[in-house]
């Protein structure tokens, strides 16, 4: 069976190769936890760099335009950037929570039904805390309630 290093052209968007299980490997054993810890730390680092870039951009671009239209355009641009950073701030909190679950060896199981979430789903969304079935049901319920 090929190892992770032998997998050609299988890098994911985040720059990590998909995890390759060995025969008889325990689900969420030490190697899997290390894999997801690396992914989450890299993701968090990327988000933090984006925050720094935004701060620098806003400092560099901040100007008191005399023209109200120019000033409004700049304020709208900054508002959009700040909303994106707020979403990323919330995501960083979720990443930290997920890293704690890994440390506590409680990562990888659905918080609703307790089954394995699955490696591929976790690679697609490392902060997932529900299996596909439970998440689908939760989304259907959410649509019905109209949240």
Automatic annotation (TrEMBL):
ZnF start-end (dksA C4-type): 110-134
GO biological process assignments: regulation of gene expression
Main location: cytoplasm
Domain of life: Bacteria
Name recorded for this polypeptide: RNA polymerase-binding transcription factor DksA
One family name in Pfam for this protein: DksA_N
The protein's assembly and partners: Interacts directly with the RNA polymerase.
Gene Ontology CC annotation, any one: cytoplasm
InterPro entries per UniProt: DksA_N, DksA_RNA_pol-bd, DnaK_N, Znf_C4-type_bac, Znf_DskA_TraR, Znf_DskA_TraR_CS
GO molecular function terms noted in the UniProt entry: zinc ion binding
UniProt keyword annotation of Lipid metabolism present: no
Entry-linked HAMAP family: DksA
All copies of domain Zinc finger DksA/TraR C4-type, residue ranges: 106-138
Gene: dksA
Family designation: Belongs to the DksA family.
Localization: Cytoplasm
